[in-house]
Each structure stands twice: as C-alpha cells, then as structure tokens.
Request: fold
Amino acid sequence: MRLDGFGLFVNDMAKMIRFYRDVLGFEIKETEDTSNVYLVKDGTLFLLYGRDDFEKMTGHRYEYVKGLNGHSELALYVDTFEEVDSAFKRVVESGAIAVMEPKLEPWGQKTCYIADPEGNLIEIGSWNKPYEIKDL
Reply:
C-alpha cells in the first residue's frame, strides 16, 4: 500500500477550506459546497470531510474533541529559521490560533505551533536548510 493522503473531519467546511486554501496555501481540488473536499499541498492529497456527511456514509457516530486537540499534527516545512518567524506571524495575523511561538529546540530545529479554526495542531518548522537536503 502507498500513502495516498490524509484527512480531517470538520464541522464548518467553508471556514476550514478558506483557512487551508487562503492562509496555508493548499490548492483546492473541489467546489466549496461539497461534503468531501480534496486539497493538495506539495503533491500530497489532503482531505476535509464533513462530519455529518461522513457519519451518514459510514453508518456510524464518532466522538470528536473540542478546542485544541492533540490527536494529530500536520507538519509544514520552511527553509530558514527566519521563515519560521515570518510564517508564524503571517498565519496568526490571518486567523490561525497561536499555540507556541517560534523557538530553537535543543535538537537544532526551529519550530512553532498553530491551530486551525477547529483546533487541529499544525507545526511550522525548519532545520535552516532547504527541504531537499534536510534530514529525514
């Protein structure tokens, strides 16, 4: 099996589409009024599923956390430490929830955390070198 993509289950589809498209730069692959929205970021498929529609489709009810949640993290990379600072400032000014301001970690990565409008955690980090040569 190959990783095809990953997704989030959302309450407010329009708000979440605007955040991921307009604030984080994801490319949308569907119309905004659909119950399942396909977005792409750097060749990776990212899905937003309307919670009610997904529950109807699968015939199950699910539990969802409210507020900031630590169930998962989406990690975004920038090439320089300065870009971590500027990206954090820009996305918070554009509506992201500030979780942790940028800081240099003991292992050499500069990182910060934000959350999307529904509380899903997003890391913005850098090893201060281009993505293509960063350590994986």
